[in-house]
């Protein structure tokens, strides 16, 4: 009966149960949680106890707590691992998906099958185990999975102790109830297969230290990263979250507690305490996948987003299958020189994209739960409807954000995830009629061309296809550095280009935390004086 139910679910998803079965063969689990790195923000492990010295302790289990406690999976492989035998999406039948000449209908069919194969590969062994919490990956009986180390030197966003979730972004949604808007927060945890974790192990060493890359890195073919994202909205605010997986989590204020930029880490811990009694329910809203795939000629990566579909799939037995595929992308459909991203390509809903597929019925379903704020509805997508999930910025796309992933320089600076997070000329701007240097982005915010950089030049930077392991380019065709002269400022003065972390924003953010921890440790900065330079996270 169980196999029949699984087969029916997979059939609804448009994929073969036989192809999935080959990827999910049980094996003797190996414990991948070594305890080398701290597991959560206020982990009391003696080696790292000084990280949260002086802070209010609100992210550690008390004697009255009897629930699960997160452990970091950090025993990274030290030799390359290729799991091709268990990755059916690498079959030749999917080559056509990457061919611009393939019809939109065929491309959509292949994209759906590809994405569901990856999704179920990520779920195998991580859910529905009688003695384990979902996504407790320490002893996966199908295949090992791993976490990023050192997302722990950050009182506001560091991992919480129940599921290892990190605070991602504030998202205000347009809704039909109450005041018409809901201020919410995203919490997420990413896992990496063995192929991807081998690359993590080049940075995060077996002795609990980091080797900061001094040259571009690239993940190997077949690397898979999966990331469930949970939201703090109530069912009254977002009914689409009904019947979705729900976790109890040690989170801060669900409306995204903020602190002054001048606040110390001690002050941040006091202003934004965690709570696992009052603020404890988060529901699955989005599930992101990314796959290293050489057939993506311009980027080397495929990104996909599944979204909550709990109302339409209420009768599906497995709650983790109550999602629908919003889209799959392997390129940014870069605007030609002088053109703007907000209206290129023309009418993608009718004509489609060359380098991605959007499932418009799913976007429409998400939007049906929204109020009058069009761009704040859940199905807003990205610039000109490029792929972006409900948690993501409407001026961007999955790949345009992640392509910016770089090693922080000596001032802990990295390229902004999108131009809106800076004082630069903004991206995805529509010109105001009759004006050449002023416009509006998708949120309706006024934008101006700054420092002699045009809107089209900025779009050309952020919506360029960045090849895996290639430095993110922050210069215009004329050679103007849009971040200013002398940026990046790496220790090696001869390193003039950003050092690529190959689309891994989590690796970039964790390295920033490590580098600041090292600076404070070397300088013996008193706990009450320590400040964390906030990373630029996804915002809506």
UniProtKB/TrEMBL annotation:
Residues 1-21 form the signal peptide. Keywords: Signal. The keyword Signal applies. It comes from the Bacteria. The keyword Signal applies. This is Cytochrome c domain-containing protein.
């Amino acid at each position: 009966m169980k196999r029949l139910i699984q087969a029916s679910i997979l059939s609804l998803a448009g994929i073969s149960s036989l192809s999935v079965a080959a990827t999910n063969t049980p094996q003797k689990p190996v414990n991948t949680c070594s305890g080398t790195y701290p597991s959560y923000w206020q982990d009391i492990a003696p080696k790292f106890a000084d990280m949260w010295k002086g802070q209010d302790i609100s992210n550690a289990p008390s004697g009255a707590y009897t629930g699960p406690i997160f452990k970091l999976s950090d025993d990274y492989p030290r030799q390359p691992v290729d799991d091709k035998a268990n990755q059916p999406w690498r079959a030749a039948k999917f080559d056509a998906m990457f061919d611009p000449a393939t019809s939109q209908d065929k491309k959509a069919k292949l994209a759906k099958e590809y994405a569901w194969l990856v999704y179920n590969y990520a779920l195998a062994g991580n859910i529905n185990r009688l003695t384990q919490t979902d996504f407790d990956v320490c002893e996966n009986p199908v295949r090992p999975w791993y976490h990023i180390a050192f997302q722990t030197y950050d009182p506001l966003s560091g991992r919480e102790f129940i599921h290892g979730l990190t605070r991602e972004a504030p998202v205000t949604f347009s809704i039909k109830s109450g005041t018409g808007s809901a201020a919410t927060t995203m919490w997420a945890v990413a896992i990496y297969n063995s192929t991807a974790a081998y690359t993590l192990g080049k940075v995060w060493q077996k002795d609990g230290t980091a080797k900061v890359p001094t040259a571009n890195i690239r993940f190997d073919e077949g690397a898979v990263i999966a990331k469930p994202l949970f939201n703090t909205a109530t069912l009254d605010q977002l009914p689409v979250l009904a019947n979705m997986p729900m976790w109890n989590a040690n989170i801060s204020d669900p409306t995204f507690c903020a602190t002054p930029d001048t606040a110390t880490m001690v002050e941040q811990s006091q202003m934004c305490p965690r709570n696992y009694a009052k603020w404890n329910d988060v529901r699955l809203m989005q599930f992101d996948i990314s796959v290293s795939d050489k057939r993506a000629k311009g980027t080397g990566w495929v990104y996909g987003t599944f979204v909550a579909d709990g109302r339409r799939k209420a009768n599906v037995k497995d709650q983790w299958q109550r999602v629908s595929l919003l889209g799959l992308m392997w390129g940014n459909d870069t605007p030609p020189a002088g053109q703007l991203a907000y209206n290129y390509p023309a009418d993608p809903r009718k004509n489609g994209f060359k380098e991605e597929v959007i499932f418009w019925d799913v976007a429409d379903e998400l939007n049906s739960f929204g109020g009058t704020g069009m761009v704040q509805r859940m199905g807003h997508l990205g610039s000109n409807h490029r792929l972006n999930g409900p948690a993501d910025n409407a001026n961007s796309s999955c790949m345009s954000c992640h392509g910016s992933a770089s090693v922080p320089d000596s001032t802990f600076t990295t390229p902004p995830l999108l131009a809106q997070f800076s004082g630069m000329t903004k991206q995805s701007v529509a010109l105001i009629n009759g004006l050449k240097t002023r416009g509006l982005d998708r949120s309706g915010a006024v934008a101006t061309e700054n420092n002699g950089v045009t809107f089209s030049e900025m779009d050309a930077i952020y919506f360029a296809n960045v090849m895996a392991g290639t430095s993110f380019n922050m210069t215009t065709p004329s050679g103007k550095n849009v971040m200013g002269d002398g940026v990046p400022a790496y220790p090696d003065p001869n390193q003039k280009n950003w050092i690529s972390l190959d689309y891994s924003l989590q690796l970039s953010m964790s390295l920033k935390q490590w580098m600041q921890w090292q600076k404070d440790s070397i300088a013996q900065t008193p706990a009450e004086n320590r400040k964390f330079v906030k990373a630029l996270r996804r915002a809506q």
